Every structure is written in C-alpha cells, then in structure tokens.
Amino acid sequence: MLSDDPKRALVLSGGGGRGAYHVGVLRFLEEHEWVPDVVVGTSIGAVNGAALASGHTANSLWALWRRLRTKDVQKPNWNPFSSVSLLDRSPLRDTLLNEGWLDF
Questions:
Q1: How many CA atoms lie within 13 A of 25 on its CB side?
Q2: pTM for the complete prediction?
C-alpha cells in the first residue's frame, strides 16, 4: 500500500570526482525547487550529504569544491609497509572539520 505522505530521497554515489558532479545535480534540483526529505550517500556522497545536512546549498558547496586541492585530501604515505595504502587520507578529515564543510 502506498503511503499518503511520500518522502523524497536523494542518493549520492561514491567515487571521488563524482562529488563535484553531485553539486551540478544539486544546483539543478534547487533551481526546480525539489527538496529531499532524506539524503544518503557513500564515500564522497556521504561527505556531500553531510555538508547538505550542515546547512550548505549547492552554491556554497560549489565554492568549497572550487577551493579544494589534492593536498587537502591526501598526501603520500612514505612508509607503505605500515599501511595498506600508498596514500594517507588524514588531510581530508582536517579539511572537512576546519574548512567549513561540516558543522557538528
């Protein structure tokens, strides 16, 4: 049975650079006054979803994306035997917390 009060969900995919693509979709949805009731995402989609939940709009999120640089997201892991990755993603956490992406 269909609900009398349907909800709109926005599902944001993962995949690094797709995060910038999400912003274009968000801009289109805002221009057409489509507002989701639920936002879910994985990986970069979760980052953008959390930014939306923190009060960002497509325009403010776009401004953050334009400032973002590789060094804000990752740095080389000079001791690959200490980890399973050649890249250290710890800069991303600092960027999200200190550059206005998220408001806890």
A1: 13
A2: 0.84
62/79 Cα distance (integer angstroms): 34
Q: Which residues of the chain have pLDDT under 50?
A: none
- In angstroms, what CA-CA distances link 2 with 5, 7, 34, 72? 9, 11, 21, 45
DSSP string, 11-25: EE---TTHHHHHHHH
CA–CA distance, 69 with 98 (Å, rounded to integer): 14
What is the model's pLDDT at position 9? Answer: 95
Per-residue pLDDT, 58: 95
- Rounded to whole angstroms, the Cα distance separating 80 from 97 reads 26
Q: Say how many CA atoms lie within 13 Å of 68 toward its Cβ.
A: 21
Strand partners for 10: 39
With residue 38 as reference, give the H or E element that holds it.
strand 38-41
pLDDT given at position 1 = 67
